[in-house]
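Record pair follows.
FIRST:
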Amino acid sequence: MTLSDLPLQANAVVETVHDTHANDTIARRLRELGFVKGESVRLVARGPIGGEPLLVQVGFTRFALRRSEAARIQVTAEQGAPA
């Protein structure tokens, strides 16, 4: 599942960030922000218009991501996460 598909208030673990092309600056920046394999993430909130932006927490830091950016991040939902 991707981070953009994660249910609201659900916790997950990052598996990978997909590059859409060579030297993908967005994918590189997501990794620099902490979206790396094994890192815990949580979908905190969705924006009011079209569900954008997504408010995502990595550690103690929160980021606002576009759905297209969050769709690049492959995650595995943690056990006991809301469906």
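SECOND:
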Amino acid sequence: MIFDKKAFRSSATGVEEEFLLTIKRCLILAPHPDDESLACGGLIQLLLQQGTEVRVILTTDGSQSHRSATYPPDQLAALRYGEMITALDCLGIDPQQLKGYQSKDSAMPAKGEPGFEILSERLHADLSDFLPQLILVPYELDPHRDHRATFQLLLSALKNVANYKPVIWEYPIWLYENASESDIPKLEAGELKFLDIHGYLHKKEKAIQAHQSQTTQLIDDDPSGFRLTTEMMGNFLNGKEYFMQRNKINPAGTLSKDYFETLYSTHSDPWSFETSAYESHKYAATISAIPDGQYRKALEIGCSIGVLTQMLSSKCDHLTAMDISEIALEKARKRMKDQKAVAFIQGGIPADFPDESFDLIVMSEVGYYLSKEDLLATRELIFNSLLPDGVLVMVHWTHFVADYPLSGDEVHHCFDQAKLKHLKGSRTADYRLDVYKKQE
């Protein structure tokens, strides 16, 4: 079966620049020397340019690409490792950021095979040490046993890293050339992403060519030895790199009530709302961003212990404040015990969204706790509950947090696509703030 590369790529959506800006640590798992340059040579340059720390793990020794008397397996492995160092140097990665696991090329242990658990323990230790926010790994069914084993290795190692949930991007290599029908990914909308790398092509091509044992006749005593053809390299030098962020590999369910109750039971103010200078400045900016006027009826989604609630209460005649945590609400009620115009309700969104109408809704540091599906449902509820000319104020932390299903930027992009007028927005090094208005 011939894989329809054009149809595959046509479904891709662009990688969001804001997401990449949140990535401070990235790990690339490469089964063979050259996979790193082919699959993500452009991405590597972009990440390094923005200050991201990038590490690479080579899972095999690359010793089986040729049957050569001049370069027997040990020498071939050393040659290819040196070529990889040169390639990474072309891309800007220090050799100290490369680590080799030395599994035998074309015989890397797969799940259930001898040696797999030892590799899994090793990767577990490396993941625990580095905690990359973004991991690049071959596509689960890429048609090469080492590529599939490397994918299996990652999932095995991740199971044992507590409280850690990186974003996983799968990259295709042999899918383009050797796919059978059963190998072809069945992707949902938005799961295939592309990165425009036209500005990084020169160094990427130089890095690929650094793998001379794979791109030239350097090894000339094995006519049947592997060589990257011009057509094969063309899959990766067309100005775009393609990655799959599949939902089944990147689970993003809404955080549960138990998650928050555990936080509040171990710390009465887990985010230091009462004492943090960051929170104080952000709250002041939030109040200042609300358009002038006295609001008749307002809703605060995710009021926590009521610090912002207290400030919002002066802007409206009646305020409904809701939170999923009963422990947090108890403290908020005590803080506001003399405020008759403030009502508290316990519940999470979207399931417990109040069936009322509001002329002001504030959602601060809440949206990224939701799955994309629940966020879209909440967006619809917010729109329907806003009165004509009603105002929505949103504020979210923009750094990567492993526990959270979404990033702050993903939350705000979702609302940028809503049927709301964007009044104003601002961004600091740590959060973004946007104000919307409903117009009929």
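COMMENT: The chain has a mean pLDDT of 94.
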